[in-house]
Write a structure and sequence with these properties.
The chain is about 65% helix and about 0% strand. The chain is mostly helical and about 160 residues long. It folds into 2 domains: about 80 residues; about 70 residues, no CATH class. The chain has a two-stranded antiparallel ribbon. The termini are far apart.
């Protein structure tokens, strides 16, 4: 099952509106089309509390029972995540992993993500982020992130670049 954004969430995601944290905003961007279990597992298990808070505050809602059929639910869970959602998620990863200790790496990755306007440039930025994670946090962490990103961009190959 996936959640739906409310009009309040759409206002929050509009340019110039910043009432939520970066993690909450990235969850809002990913909410539609991402299974609830995957959202709850994000951010090292903190996703469940964030999802609950967004539900309570009226940013997310359960899909209406009348409009949800098994066929429509399966379509929504396989829908690709938006480029903006992927960018927000990659920005969040960059901040959490590099901003405090590796300032130059974080700056370079943020710049690449800001300039990524299409799928190919976003994939290029993602590859650089994964290489930096591999270098500084290890192969296991990089592979876990690669798997997570594969769920976000299922229509594209996420194999390790040579």
């Amino acid at each position: 099952m996936s959640l739906q954004r409310t009009p309040k969430a759409l206002l929050e995601l509009a340019p110039g509106q910043r009432h939520l944290s970066l993690r909450e905003r990235s969850l809002l961007l990913l909410a539609e089309g991402t299974p609830l279990a995957q959202l709850q597992a994000m951010y090292h298990g903190q996703g469940a509390a964030l999802v609950q808070r967004l539900l309570q505050d009226g940013y997310l809602q359960q899909p209406s029972a009348a409009g949800t059929t098994p066929a429509s639910e399966s379509l929504s869970t396989t829908a690709p995540t938006s480029l903006a959602g992927v960018r927000m998620h990659l920005f969040d990863l960059c901040e959490r992993m590099f901003a405090n200790r590796l300032h130059d790496t974080a700056h370079h990755l943020r710049q690449m993500l800001r300039e990524a306007r299409d799928v190919d440039s976003m994939l290029h930025a993602r590859d650089h982020l994964l290489r930096a994670v591999h270098l500084h946090a290890g192969a296991e962490r990089a592979e876990a992130l690669r798997q997570q990103l594969a769920d976000m961009l299922p229509e594209r190959s996420l194999d390790t670049p040579s």
